[in-house]
Amino acid sequence: MDILQEISDNLQKGQVSKVGILVKQALEDKIDVKTILGSLIEGMGVVGRRFRDGEIYVPEVLIAARAMYAGLDLIRPLLVQTGATYIGKVVIGTVKGDLHDIGKNLVKMMMEGAGFEVIDLGRDVSPEKFVEAVKANQPDIVGMSALITTTMVNMKDTIEALKRANLRDKVIVMVGGAPVTERFAAEIGADSYAKDADTAVAKAKALISNKR
Amino acid sequence: MLKYYEVYIDKNLVLKYLGYKDKIPPKGISDEVGQCVDESYEFINPIICFDQFQFRLDGGILLPDGSIIEDGHIIESLRRANYIVMAVLTLGNKIDVKISDLFDRNDYMEGMIYDVIGNVALEYLGKIFWQDLLEGAKKQSMGITQSLSPGSGGWKDIADQRMIFNNLDTSSIGVELTDTFMMKPMKSLSVIYGIGRDVKTSAMDHDCAECPLVDCPYRKEMIKCAD
Q: Between B106, B113, B184, which is nearest A69 by CB?
């Protein structure tokens, strides 16, 4: 079997050590690092589809993610060295005042699995910190998460801060989290709302594609 | 007052909350959850800060410090009570640190398992504390309401947590309320119970049927009130 297909298949089964060994082998075989990344993305894509179709549950996705990182961690430095491009760059964080970050972490993981470069600002992120990160990293997308009603209002403050810094038109703003709705996203001037990590990836891909 | 408890973490409940309600989990996942459950006890330090308070019905539930609970659902739940118990329950900070460390290391699987373990442990702590209060109430020929938490179930305003924190010295258990009404440590819970001769005791400490979060992964079957 083709080694790239083996990487994808073993990732789907959550075979952490096998994915690591196969990625090392692929690198020794001088396979282009971007092609290896493609096999990891392909594997996570299958996992995402199976999850969407209800064939597998969240833990099986997370086991696959563990295998994905076993490969990704090996090639990430080489991706930087070779200047190989990701499909897009995302700055992500949980908004000011909110300490919940599991939803945001899952979006980060699925985004990385889909081939995005993700800069994670963590939780309790102020509008100013989002603005600084946009200036420093020039992302395609800013992703914001909030889990409670008292903090989701800070998404609007962040969008306003981006406007004041003349950065709003340069980025796509995506929002999500338990109390957030499509309507709320529109009201605060976000470009997109995603109800879960899988949808966030699909929408991010579509938005990036439209932007370019 | 402070009370210390030991909690029991049901592995099957952890698996259920991870999504395996109707499907048997793969063995590898079941084993990993079991191992995490076994190891999790060292990260969990359950403690409860609580006290009982008299109140008056005067434009709402008027507390001794002058604050008033105005939520209609809560007024209805507490109006027959002779007194209320306010409590803050916590598992301590160690499990928060453990969960953050796991996610920081990109170990999403164990991070998620420990997060669910924390929720199961907190749920168990709430249940055994309620049962203790129930036993005390029975001795006084009284009943007890289910647990009532601001921002949860029928109690809409999460900001009402401030009333609980204003009436309890939670610094003794290391729990603080942020400006956005989140508790630190995260695996903490603020609750009120009504106790009285005319209070009907609920069958459990928490009735998911009263909660509007119909998609909540922790939702349980509807239960009946015990007369």
A: B106
What's the ipTM? 0.84
Give the number of domains in chain A: 2
CATH number at residue A12: 1.10.1240.10
Q: Which residue range(s) make up the domain with A25?
A: 3-82
Question: Which alpha helices (H) appear in B42-160, and where do they start and end?
Answer: 72-78, 94-104, 108-139
Kind and range of the H or E element at A94?
strand A88-94
Same domain, A131 and A68: no
Q: What are chain B's domains?
A: 2-52+84-142+155-193 (3.40.109.40)
Of B19, B158, B180, Cβ closest to residue A58: B19
Dist CA B154 CA B211 (whole Å): 6
CA distances from B107 to A10, B101, B111 (A): 18, 9, 6
Rounded CA separation B115/B20 (Å)? 16
Q: Taking CB atoms and an 8 Å limit, are A57 and B23 in contact across chains? A: yes
A108 and A181 share one domain: yes
Flag whether pLDDT at B224 surpasses 50.
Answer: no
What is the value of pTM for the model shown? Answer: 0.88
Q: What is the mean pLDDT of residues A113-124?
A: 93
What pLDDT score was predicted for residue B152? Answer: 84
Same domain, A134 and A47: no
Rg (CA), chain A: 18
**In this structure, are A65 and A136 located in the same domain?**
no
**Using the beta-carbon criterion (under 8 Å), do A62 and B186 form an inter-chain contact?**
no
Probe site for chain A from B95, B105, B108 (most A CB atoms < 10 A): B108
Under 8 Å CB-to-CB from A56, ≥6 apart: which residues? A47, A50
Q: In CATH, what number is assigned to the domain containing residue A132?
A: 3.40.50.280
From A51, which residue of chain B is nearest by alpha-carbon distance?
Answer: B19
Q: What is the rounded average pLDDT of the residues B176-194?
A: 95
A62 touches chain B (CB under 8 A): yes
- Contact: A102, B179; criterion CB under 8 Å: no
Closest of B84, B74, B79, B77 to residue B133, by C-alpha: B84
Locate B79 and state its tokens.
């109006």
Same domain, A58 and A157: no
